[in-house]
Design goal:
Strand order of the largest sheet of chain A: 2-1-5-4-3-6-7
Strand content of chain B: 25-35%
Number of helices of chain B: 6
Structural class of chain B: alpha+beta
Helix content of chain B: 25-40%
Largest sheet of chain B: 7 strands, mixed
Largest sheet of chain A: 7 strands, mixed
Strand order of the largest sheet of chain B: 1-2-3-4-5-7-6
Radius of gyration of chain B: 24 Å
Order of helices and strands of chain B: HHHEEHEEEEEHH
Distance between the termini of chain B: 89 Å
Oligomer: heterodimer
Number of strands of chain B: 7
Largest interface: A-B, 27 and 31 residues
């Protein structure tokens, strides 16, 4: 009797572990994202394998999106070969000629501009507001998501963690001073 | 005798301190008033600068005859250029006396002709508002028309009023958008307060 109830408990734990492992495995599946560049070429996240990818959704009419752009531009400059910042605009096709000058204006001309993310992509990523930023590791796994404007210390810390490098000296300075640097770069 | 002589100088000192104090308070009031009112003045000036522009007809040369545009940085990529002006209630927002509110005016130019004029209004925590002059409204069958900006997965992140280059709104930009919101305690609470032009667009023209 005792052995029977014990084996049931073990079985329950075993089933629970399998379910939990399956959920974990689901969360660890590399995200499938279909983006287009400004010339209509299709891009998938796998194209950037080996690099940390920061996927930032924005629009030309989103003021906080523009406010964080100099910061993203600066991070792209800092982590040149290790990081790809994909600036995915959800503006309408008619607004496409405005996009690149807008990025340049907001000190983010070095970001990789993408347009027209597909419905599947947006649904999968639960895009709910702008700006919205997703962090993918070098294997394409979604490791973090940030809704709303990015904050410099958090972004620097997260990127440093993902790159496996200690935060730079600049990340310890006061945010006000840093934002001036961001504008000046 | 000495005590009698001291008291007028003490009185002088006291009155000098008092006068300095009053002057400092007055100066502080002037500075604070300036800081509060400056964003609204800038916003109104920016809106006036983009008044009477006709997309598809106004040339960049016409634009550069306006003093405000002569001072602006021209940002280009290929043939597409933009001029942008901004105003924000930073002082009130920092003191938590009003939600952060920004008003941007953007003029797009291509091959020497104005291709778009936009006013973007944003209050912290609310979807953005866009007032957009285009050559032809493609969003809907009417001009002007109001459209919610939604992501393909149905999250609303803004509202846009589009009007074509024949609409009279283009000649009434300072009245269409309420720049005073940037200097108001607690800011403007509704879209119609921030963009009074909302109230002038018939219900039927709202998609």
């Amino acid at each position: 009797m005792y052995i029977g109830s014990m084996s049931r408990a073990v079985l329950k734990i075993f089933i629970f572990s399998i379910c939990f492992a399956a959920i974990q495995a689901g969360a660890q599946t590399p995200a499938s994202i279909d983006l287009q560049d400004i010339n209509g070429g299709h891009h998938k996240l796998e194209d950037y394998k080996g690099k940390v990818v920061l996927l930032n959704f924005w629009a030309t009419y989103c003021v906080p999106c523009a406010a964080e752009m100099p910061l993203l531009g600066q991070m792209q400059k800092r982590y040149k070969d290790k990081l790809v910042v994909l600036a995915a605009s959800i503006d309408e096709p008619v607004d496409r000629p405005k996009l690149k000058p807008f990025l340049v204006k907001h000190k983010a001309g070095n970001l990789t501009l993408m347009v027209g993310p597909t419905l599947d992509t947006l649904t999968d990523l639960h895009l709910s507001s702008l700006p919205d930023t997703m962090f993918f590791d070098a294997n394409g796994m979604l490791v973090a998501k940030s809704v709303g404007a990015l904050k410099r210390p958090e972004l620097e810390r997260r990127l440093a963690e993902m790159m496996g490098t200690p935060p730079t000296k600049a990340s310890h300075s006061r945010p006000k001073k840093m934002s001036k640097t961001a504008v000046a770069h | 005798m000495a005590a009698v002589l001291k008291s007028p100088s003490r009185m002088n000192k006291t009155s000098t301190f008092a006068a300095t104090g009053v002057l400092l308070v007055l100066a502080a009031i002037v500075v604070i008033r300036y800081e509060i009112n400056a964003p609204a003045r800038t916003a109104v000036a920016n809106l006036t600068a983009i008044n009477n522009i006709t997309v598809g007809r106004t040339t960049e040369a016409d634009l550069l005859r306006r003093p405000e545009f002569q001072k602006l940085e021209r940002t280009c990529f290929g043939a597409d250029c933009l001029y942008q002006m901004a105003a924000e209630n930073s002082f009130l927002a920092r003191l938590h006396l009003a939600p952060r509110t920004s008003l941007w005016t953007v003029v797009n130019v291509r091959d020497g002709i104005v291709t778009g004029v936009s006013v973007i209004a944003w209050r912290a925590g609310t979807p953005g508002l866009v007032l957009n002059q285009v050559e032809r409204v493609t969003d809907c069958d009417y001009s002007p028309c109001i459209k919610d900006l939604i992501t393909p997965n149905h999250a609303k992140h803004g509202t846009r009023i589009s009007f074509n280059n024949l609409s009279n709104i283009r000649n009434h930009m300072p009245e269409a958008v309420n720049g005073e919101c940037l200097s108001r305690l607690h800011g403007c609470q509704s879209n119609t307060e921030l963009m009074p032009v909302f109230t002038e667009i018939p219900q039927i023209q709202r998609n």
